[in-house]
Amino acid sequence: MSEKQVFSVGDVVKMKKAHPCGSFEWEITRTGMDFGLKCKGCEHAVMLPRQKFEKAVKEIVK
Ligand SMILES: [Zn+2]
User: Fold this and answer.
1) Rounded to the nearest whole angstrom, what is the distance from the C-alpha of residue 26 to the centroid of ligand 1?
2) Fewer CB under 10 Å: which end of the chain, C or N?
3) Which of 53, 44, 48, 47 is nearest to 13 (CA)?
4) What's the predicted TM-score (pTM) here?
């Protein structure tokens, strides 16, 4: 995705790789230097540095 892509808390994003639970979709719970994400499949929560997050995202679902 473009580095100029704007992400907001509450957005649902689709990742390039599936979570072990089988879901590709995550909800953004925090933005900034680090991004907070919650898996839509199993509700597992993670924190990722922005750069790593941007490389892992395929598209914004909503
Ligand atoms: Zn999951």
Assistant:
1) 8
2) C
3) 53
4) 0.89
